[in-house]
Write a structure and sequence with these properties.
The chain is mainly β. It contains 2 helices and 10 strands. It has a 10-stranded antiparallel barrel. The radius of gyration is 19 Å and the shape is globular. 15% of the residues are buried.
Length: 169
């Protein structure tokens, strides 16, 4: 009897991981909605000044976007972006060389990807952070802003235009 219970438990634990027979994962429109962010980018401000380099790659059979940011002043950061099909929401977890950890969530609003989340600033204030990515004919426009009054007013933290990288990195 004990062997049967162990065998049934082992089978139950294996079933969720044997999805290969189910066909490709992450191929529907919701999973592909943020693909426009993938690329090897140089980032510029609105005046054309270089801000940094951003390489965003598809990983794990196209289910995850991994961002690798390096700013011209030496700062860096990485994000993992994934569509949570069970909750029908996009999630980004960002970690940087400034020690920042930010988790934001959202989805497509029209043609823009919009994700929002909270972060406790160094002084203990809770800030609402919002990232908006807009696909453009020649790249992606990304605005990262924050609010200290629950979203009534916003302060821009980053406003960058991602263009295909001039040099391979």
């Amino acid at each position: 009897m004990g062997f049967i219970v162990v065998a049934l438990l082992a089978t139950a634990l294996v079933v969720p991981t044997t999805r290969a027979a189910d066909g490709p994962r992450c191929t529907d429109a919701a999973h592909r909605a943020f693909d426009f962010f993938a690329g090897d980018w140089d980032a510029y401000d609105s005046a054309g000044k270089l801000l940094g380099h951003n390489r965003v790659e598809k990983a794990h059979d196209g289910c995850v976007l991994i961002e690798h940011w390096t700013g011209v002043e030496g700062e860096s950061g990485t994000s993992l972006n994934i569509y949570d099909a069970n909750r029908k929401v996009w999630n980004e977890t960002w970690a940087s060389s400034h020690g920042t950890l930010l988790t934001i969530e959202g989805g497509m609003r029209g043609k823009q990807m919009v994700m929002i989340g909270t972060h406790v600033d160094d002084d203990g204030r809770v800030a609402l952070h919002r990232n908006i990515w807009t696909p453009m004919a020649d790249g992606v426009h990304q605005v990262w802003d924050y609010s200290l009054d629950g979203g009534q007013t916003w302060v821009v933290n980053y406003d960058g235009y991602l263009r295909p990288a001039k040099a391979k990195r």
